[in-house]
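Technical annex, item 7. During the second reporting period the consortium partners agreed on a shared format for inverse folding records so that results from different sites could be compared directly. Each record opens with the tokenized structure and is followed by the designed sequence. A conforming record, contributed by the partner at site C, is shown below for reference.
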């Protein structure tokens, strides 16, 4: 797992915020890293890496060669930084619509991880990472590590990983991908701190849930609403403890937590409380107990997270 890693760069400093997190993930692993940039087709304007506008009247083919040369030089410089930790680093420059070219490249190299920023704009490629990330996430089949630009942390180790779960098998598909990032307390490398997994599930307590309970209980509806939530919490806690055993069997520490409220808000609040340095979750899932709809929750978490987010698009059986 994580042997073919594609890191997306657009020439901007914002996009480069992903590099420490990518390096932390691949450090010490026998993997191949591809530094990829996609140049959007332009006709009359070329922007350099400092984002200054340069009017160009050259033939488009000549202009494209200049842009490609500049981007190759840029990627080679980045590659030299990465090679200090990973021997097998390759660079690639593509021309076309960024999302489509990214997806095509990921398929060609059979990537098992894509690393990208959620924000950024490069003068030379004119990417807007927010929209590109959204398009890639909708169609990519491998996990995506998203780093929100401007929220880089002093260290980029994955020591405190938060996994939101809703009790569904779809949500659980993130577990093996997260486990591949963990460092056991039994590890022989004393220079690296072990990983702690925080498992959280959120019981929704909105008006819709209370209304359903009231309509299906008589009497007293409000008391039964609380009782139903308490019972659901017991069931979820039992479930999370069984998942925790999945990590503990190999020496990885795991803690469980049940919250009540809006799933996205509670996940973000809990991530701040435990100072999570990674949130790992699937893009889709649905639980009858907690009534999450993951597509919506994952999107809100992505917008508000202060740490990187590992998103896995689950395979529907």
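Designed sequence (site C submission):
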């Amino acid at each position: 797992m994580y042997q073919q890693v594609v890191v997306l760069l657009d020439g901007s400093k914002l996009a480069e915020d992903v590099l420490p997190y990518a390096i932390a993930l691949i450090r010490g692993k026998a993997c191949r890293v591809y530094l990829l940039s996609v140049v959007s087709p332009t006709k009359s304007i070329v922007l350099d890496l400092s984002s200054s506008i340069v009017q160009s009247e050259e033939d488009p083919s000549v202009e494209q060669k200049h842009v490609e040369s500049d981007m190759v030089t840029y990627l080679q410089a980045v590659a030299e930084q990465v090679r200090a930790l990973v021997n097998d680093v390759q660079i690639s420059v593509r021309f076309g619509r960024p999302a489509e070219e990214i997806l095509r490249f990921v398929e060609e190299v059979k990537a098992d991880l894509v690393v990208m920023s959620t924000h950024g704009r490069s003068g030379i490629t004119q990417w807007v990472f927010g929209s590109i990330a959204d398009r890639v996430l909708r169609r990519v089949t491998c996990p995506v590590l998203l780093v929100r630009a401007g929220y880089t942390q002093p260290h980029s180790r994955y020591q405190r990983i938060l996994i939101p779960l809703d009790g569904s098998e779809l949500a659980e598909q993130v577990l093996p991908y997260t486990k591949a990032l963990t460092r056991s307390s039994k590890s022989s490398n004393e220079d690296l701190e072990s990983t702690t997994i925080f498992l959280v599930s959120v019981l929704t307590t909105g008006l819709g849930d209370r209304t359903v309970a009231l309509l299906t209980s008589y009497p007293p509806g409000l008391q039964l609403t609380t009782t139903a939530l308490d019972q659901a919490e017991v069931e979820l806690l039992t479930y999370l403890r069984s998942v925790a055993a999945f990590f503990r069997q190999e020496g990885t520490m795991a803690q469980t937590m049940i919250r009540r409220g809006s799933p996205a808000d509670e996940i973000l609040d809990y991530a701040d409380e435990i100072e999570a340095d990674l949130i790992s979750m699937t893009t889709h899932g649905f639980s009858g107990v907690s009534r999450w709809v993951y597509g919506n929750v994952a999107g809100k978490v992505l917008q508000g997270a202060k740490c990187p987010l590992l998103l896995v698009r689950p395979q529907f059986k």
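The chain has two domains: 4-147, 160-312. The mean pLDDT is 78. All partners now use this format for quarterly exchanges.
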